[in-house]
Amino acid sequence: MKNILVPTDFSAESHHAFEVALQLAKQTGAAVRLLHVLEAPEAATANFSAYGGPVNGSELPNSEGSIDDVFIPKLMEATKRRLHALRTQAETLAPGVAVADGVEMGRIGDGILSAVERHGADLVVMGAQGHGAMENFFVGSNTERIIRLANVPVLTVKHQQPQFEVRNIVFPSDFTEESVGAIAGLQQVQTTFPNATIHLLHVADGANSQANQQHEQAFAQRAQLTNFQTSTIAADNTSAGIEQFAKQVNADLVVIPTHARSGLSRYFNTSIAETVATRAFPPVLTYHLADA
After folding, report:
1. pLDDT tens digits for 219-232?
2. What average pLDDT does the structure give for the chain?
3. Is residue 206 left, alpha or beta, with left meaning phi > 0 and alpha meaning psi from -120 to 50?
4. Domain map of the chain by residue range?
């Protein structure tokens, strides 16, 4: 891993994601790039106060120019100040980690996806808010879109992680033949966190638990996992079962492979990954089966 992209809207959630990204970069030797996306002038105007600038203050002149002439330069200036402040914090939080920043103009999701391609990001680390969030741009729809469309793994962070020490990883699947496509990605996770226990989890709805365990053991052997446990939890709802088990084992990370194609196992349906990413307490790493 060489490049970590961190989209930020300067919210608490995005700052938590930034701190986690710095810790990962320090561990792996990666560089971090901060990104803020400025939306259309009408949307930016409504949210100008969130950038540290006034909406109706004396700082805005009564000029004859267009709204773009007034707001966009001021928004850009305020954004660059806040990005610079984050880079200054990084010097204290993670000395030696290279941190760059940039600003995109356009729709938030498009700007993030474009930056992934342009800067060769290997991982996106972004804050996540639940579906009830009304402000900032990490509401569910934007987070879910990046999970669904980004061609690199996405790590979503909702809460502060002062020490991102990954000791327990939950990996939910049905462990049938379809899951083979997830092995390479899981092996990369194991390499990054070699001391962590990987909890292979099957969320059962009344199926044969002995058969489930056999599938899990076969998967672990095929994936050459060195430190793992197999578990089955009964739940009617897959995402709820994953969240429940993550709490039960004090998970530090949930890893969910996914694919946008229909017809695959429910475990690889993007809706499961998107729901868990915006609801589960620990950080959630998603990656596409095709990327594995």
Report:
1. 999 999 999 999 99
2. 83
3. left
4. 3-157, 168-291
CATH number, domain 3-157, options 3.90.180.10, 3.40.50.620, 3.30.40.10, 3.40.30.10:
3.40.50.620
Q: Is there a contact between 79 and 87 (Cβ–Cβ < 8 Å)?
A: no
Q: What is the pLDDT of residues 100-154, one digit of tens each?
A: 999 988 888 999 999 999 999 999 999 987 544 444 445 457 888 898 889 999 9
Helices (H), the chain: 12-28, 41-46, 67-93, 108-118, 140-149, 183-192, 209-223, 238-248, 270-279
Average pLDDT of each block of 10 consecutive residues along the chain (292 residues)? 95 95 96 90 48 44 53 85 96 96 90 94 89 48 85 94 94 87 93 96 75 88 94 89 95 88 58 84 88 42
pLDDT reported for residue 106:
87
**C-alpha of 252 from chain center:** 14
Contacts of 59 (CB under 8 A, 6+ apart): 53, 74
Of the candidates 179, 187, 259, which has an alpha carbon nearest to the alpha carbon of residue 219?
179
Written as six digits, the tokens of 20 are 């986690």
Question: How far is 256 from 148, CA to CA, in rounded Å?
Answer: 12
Fold match, 3-157 / 168-291: yes
Assign 259 to helix, strand or coil. strand
